[in-house]
Amino acid sequence: MKSPDAIVIGAGIVGASCALSLTNAGLNVLVIDRGSVSSGTTGAGEGNILVSDKDPGPELTLALRSRDLWFEMQEDVGDYFELEAKGGVVVARHDDSALMKLASHQREHGVDAQVVGQAELHNLEPYLHPEFHSGVFYPQDAQCQPMLAAAHVIRTVIARGGQFISQAKVTEVLVKDSQVYGIQTSKGKFLAPIVINATGTWAGEIARMAGSDLPIAPRRGFILVTEPAPQYISHKVYDSDYVANVASSDADLQTSTVVEGTRSGTILIGASRERVGFDGSKNVEILRKLAAQATSLFPVLRDVQLLRAYHGFRPYAPDHLPVVGEDAQVKGLWHSAGHEGAGIGLAPGSAALITDEILGRPSFMDASAFSPARFAMAKV
Amino acid sequence: MIIVVGAGPAGLAAAKSAASKGCHVTVIDSQARGGGQYWRHQTEVSGYKSNRSIDYLHELQQNILITHITGAQVWSAEKLGDGYQLNYLQGGVEKKISGQKIILTTGAYDRTLPFPGWTTSGVMTPGGAQSLLKGHGVVAGKTIVVSGTGPFLLPVATALAKNGARVEIIEAQSPLRWALSPLALLLNPGKFPELIHYVSAILRLKIKVSFGSAVTGYHNGEVNISKVRSNLSIRKKNVRSATADVVATGWGFLPDVTLGGILGCAQTLDRDETVIFAVDREQRASVQNIWIAGEATGIGGADLALAEGAIAGLSAAGSRIPMALIWKRFTKRLFARALQRSYPVGAGWQQWLTDETVICRCEEVSCQEVIESVQELGAEDARTSKLFTRAGMGLCQGRVCSRNVSDLVASTTKCAVSRNERLAASNRPIAAPISLGVLGDGIAG
What we know:
The structure holds 2 protein chains of 2 kinds. By secondary structure, chain A is of the alpha/beta class. Helix content of chain A is 31%, strand content 26%. Chain A has an 8-stranded mixed beta sheet with strand order 5-6-4-14-15-16-13-17, sandwiched between helices. In chain A, a hairpin with a 6-residue loop joins strand 18 and strand 19 (333-337). Chain A is globular and about 65 Å long. In chain A, 55% of the residues are buried. Chain B is of the alpha/beta class. Chain B contains 15 helices and 23 strands. In chain B, the strands form 7 sheets. A 5-stranded parallel beta sheet of chain B has the order 3-2-1-7-20, covered by helices on one side. Chain B has a 5-stranded parallel beta sheet with strand order 9-16-10-11-12. In chain B, helix 1 crosses helix 3 (53-62) and helix 1 (9-20) runs parallel beside helix 9 (301-316). Chain B is globular. Chain A binds chain B through residues 35-39, 43, 147-148, 151-152, 154-155, 164, 166-167, 224-227, 264, 266, 269, 282, 284-285, 287-289, 291-296, 301-310, and chain B through 76, 78, 87, 262, 363, 376-381, 383-384, 387-388, 390, 393-395, 397, 428-430, 433-437, 439-444. Strand 17 (305-316) of chain A pairs antiparallel with strand 23 (434-435) of chain B.
């Protein structure tokens, strides 16, 4: 086997995007996963590509660029992953002042955030509870089928000369004189001067294997899936509490609801946020709260049957910003992780940042806010 | 209080034995009448010696220590203090019941294998045909082919014939396979009169029987019948055809393990890789104060279920288990093992499929799509294939197809299905659909 220029650990959407971006830049890439394609958090994702839930700042800049890169990726790879600019609608139940302030702030930073009044709101979402009288429409919010996206991106990488090895668990990150030179896995040793850690909730573990440190922890999120229903919901619709929750560091359970229809007719109800370890325990109370919030947005959903529920673990860093860039201590080790609930949306943007930095070419934004070094500095 | 989930043979035996020791028992069941799928209707169509059920059903109705909750769909279960709470739906309303101890006797459902035409109208499971007859007095068709494998085909075929249908039995396995299990036959002499009962019924009702054959296609009333080997691969394709307005086809049973799974009870694989619960000598599950009996601990039929249920009931009541009961369970388990050996379901059925054959009927996913998800997209197990194709995501939540999808993916990757994959495929967080309105209204406080 020819020695690759770079190894990407993780075949979720973050790793797959990185692999594609590096391949397109002319590198020979090897992708490794301990399971198969999309077997981690990507496989439990809703496929959100959102700009609406981001406060102005580096993450919003990344989200806006990343959203466009999703459509470029579709051009590049093919229309196989149900990418759709379906738009988001954010509503406020009582006081809409916080939402309106955020929207105007977002508009100044390039987000298309259209304030809609009662009539227009109910025109966008005819089944929305009548008590909602204002909201903001975000036409840029998009959606994809993330598992199919990762699979087709990996397939493209392979078609362009890259390799993918599944069921290979990394046991060691090989480092000499603070420079990475490869990895040891359950399927053998692979050498490359560049190793990209795109392992989501396991990113801290990989960093530790390299003798470094990355404070990434898992946060549990539930998704409820209903039986196929008529098209009651046209956009991604959510309560404005959601925006507040994303930036919360409160460890208590907070639920807020994102409701949307899918092409197959099922309705997805998601976004409970709860910080826990890797235990997969189910909690009937979470299901009840999500159901109650969804039906308070759309009373018509009261008679729709819940078929199943599943959960995944969202990787997050203490400051709730993604970690994208070269390791502070180990040269050649790059991280793209900690995207929390936004990994699908931010994946191609993060990949572009890493590729640009590796190639030493100018990028679309200053990525220092995402630097892994920020934690080291915080410690000092 | 002891809660028994399920009112089939195992549940009734558990309730009866626990109540005999003075315990208060609540039996909760989804049907309007007790007896489970097997005994629900005490009519002459119920099969051999089903009058045994009378004692148990009488106990269910008359014993003041036993409460019977009917028409209740348990959709979820939670640990509550040192006991358990079951959440159930009854007449569209959600209710809760809690108890210190739980005995799960959740039974089994027909196992289905796909073949070209299996999703068209006229194809059903033997259990479905039996329910129509017992529950609604409806004979599924005028001309019926009862096919698949296992002794359950016999009561279904004879009952349908008795009620006027022209019936043919197509059994995939050879009866000579029973020669592999001499000890099981020796220790279960009571099975011989049962066999004689069915053989004479078959002769009297002029039911045509063929062995070593399977239905491998059904189109517009025409049944394609092929000769098959014991692993179900095709020996000779389309050797003959028959006309029938109904094909009732079943390949043994799959235990319903959802509720025990929600409660965290450890599952294991039976010898034939069916997911079952691991239980100890007294039918105790891995989780404290939960007992499991009947088909959910291994398919074995009513006799085994009665023995296991009685043991679970006594154990939950804190009583000693008589050796005679342990011996009875032993002999019935031996017989269950012989059933597995005599009526195996091998992976050869995959030869019956064409590219277009649907494998997941809820989401209409074809065999070809599943194979492509492996070859083109890199799926390596049923879970990933499901994420790519939606196979197993529909109304039945993979109860019908997930095992078949696993086997198809495994033959495509040329790897065996892993133990973890089998176990994970049975993991469902919701035991029955519930409307979002009812679910949300149940918020505590």
